[in-house]
Amino acid sequence: MAGVSPSITIYPNARDFRIQQQNIYIATGSQYLSNRRLDLIHRLNPIPDASHTRNRKTSPPDSECFPGTRKEAVQDITTWADATDSAPGTEQGVTETISATVVVYTPTPHIYWLHGFAGSGKSAISLKISNVFEESGRLLASYFFFRNAGDRCTLNRFAATLSSQLASALPATVPLLEAALRVDPGLLHSGVSLTRQMERLVYEPFRAVMQGDIEEASAKGPFIIIIDGLDESEDKRGVEELIDQMLDFFERHPTIPLRIFIASRVEQHIRARLEVDGVRLSDLNSYKTRGDINKFLGASFHAVAKRDRVIRAYVRAHGEWPTRSDMYHLGEHIGESFVLASSIFKFIVYPATEDDPSTPMERLPRTLQMNGLDSLYSQTLARSQHLPHFCNIISTIALLREPLPIAGISSLLGIEAFEVVSVLLNLQAIIHVPGTDEEGSVTIYHTSLRDFLTTEGRSRLFFVPLSFHLHLSYHLISSIFENLGVYRPTYNYGTWCLAHHWREASAESYACISTNEQLNAPHSLRANRLPYCAFLCHMLLYSLLDNFPVTGSFPSLFTECAKQLVRAVECPDPRIKLWLEAGMNFDIVNRGINFHIKLTERTQQIVQHDLRRASTAISAKFPDILDLRSRSTTHENWSHDLSVDSISGIDIFSNG
């Protein structure tokens, strides 16, 4: 009977005996299932900070609906999610005649696409919807994409992350998911298509459970999956595949009690697939938000006035602040952008610093002269512009694929942690600064800041060019060699993301690499690290391997690699020996290949000359690590069998 606790009786009629060292284990069915679910989730290995329950300070976007705001938009979405078809079992377009009146039944669309411009509040609404349906027990899963946030900006673990939440929301799916992984052990492998993963790990287990208990499913109402920031996924083809499969699944199962809510900017690859029948479209910009923004500003200024002594003293002397006129002009200036309202508020009330001693009352009029977010970002960044390493720190934060702690950024750039903190403390209106150097990550509050920094026409003096990826590549490889074998965030990040930053830095034609000023004359690189020639030599060989079979650039790459090798081994820097000895992992796609490099006679002579110089230098300076391999230099075609997991400086010489 429901509600009765389990009980057990042992030896009820026994008399005059003793039991020693007895162990009794009692496991109820729910406990067993719970343990199975935990084991399954461990195997699925979901992204821990992708759902609505994440720590938003360390895993942006950090946005939520201010109490009492966005009611109309939220109501429209919940009404759609709650709706059930008027005539279950009928298909779209089926007509029925009732008392001489023709009625056409149109099922509720399974997909809702909320779109709007950057900063309009999409993520805040996604969070609100997630919380609403979590409370009602109908939230199946939530996933918040965020650009440059590791796996959260890809679809690599998307299906597994949704599946882990499915197992928690509907425990009855656990044995079905276990069976799917048992039948297809490689299902979680990155090489498996997203369509197959979603079908086996999300859609089919859910459908099977719903078919098994259709009455309860119908009474409870449709379940919902929340997908926020779909435009921030780097995998555009994967997004197209995801949407195509989604539409196909609902076409095959039109009565399944499942809704999918998507929030994103309007990107063409998303719009082209979602502007179809079966999807409800909603433009967030069509909702009037002026009243909500005024409510947010009024309550926020009232709250800060209670705890800020400067504001309290000003109010005692001068009366209400902000005045009604101030609030009116702020509202007119901000318009419909919630992120602008939030950022302007933070800018106004942020405590005075040595670099900006102005009071909130002095800052408020200045904000009315700002031209939207761009002006706000420029004025905020200007607070730290004069500080050492400002450009390198801001550029690094803008281009990192995954955020790092303060200590990680300082280690990467080869500077002190206090220098990073000094720059960031003035920027807390737009950048989250963790409380300690080692814990937490430095993150931007909104993606629009990264867009601003990487668009020259908008950011001007603060522009972060793609060529800064070259600086990051150099600092990463230097940091890797400085921390070999040490478990540090920078070392881990470098081994994972170095290839990405180098590819971005060397995107232009390799045919011009020998005259590339950015590669041969880098600016503002820290000198007291691995010699730059060793870095270039290392990365050029990586490019040779990574770009096969596009061989047009091979001769120039090979020649430049040999030239940089000579410079490296003739360099007096003691770190060259470590570089020659130590291997470093690379993500080489074409492994175990056999290829031919065709060189002109002149190029071959230059390369041979450089390699002989390198041989002489290595023999004289590092005889203990020299391991010359037999090679032929008499043929026009050189054949190399390269199968590598890591590359060291001596490998570069030996493969020359």
Describe this structure in words.
- This protein has about 650 residues and is of the alpha/beta class.
- The protein has 3 domains: about 30-85 and about 105-285, 3-Layer(aba) Sandwich (Rossmann fold); about 290-365, no CATH class; about 500-655, no CATH class.
- It has 28 helices and 13 strands.
- The strands form 5 sheets. The protein has a 5-stranded parallel β-sheet.
- Strand 1 and strand 2 (about 100-105) form a beta hairpin.
- Helix 10 packs across helix 11 (about 310-320), helix 21 (about 470-480) packs antiparallel against helix 22 (about 490-505) and helix 25 runs parallel beside helix 27.
- It starts with about 30 loop residues before the first helix and ends with a helix.
- Residues about 1-10, about 20-30, about 85-105, about 510-525 and about 630-645 have low confidence and may be disordered.
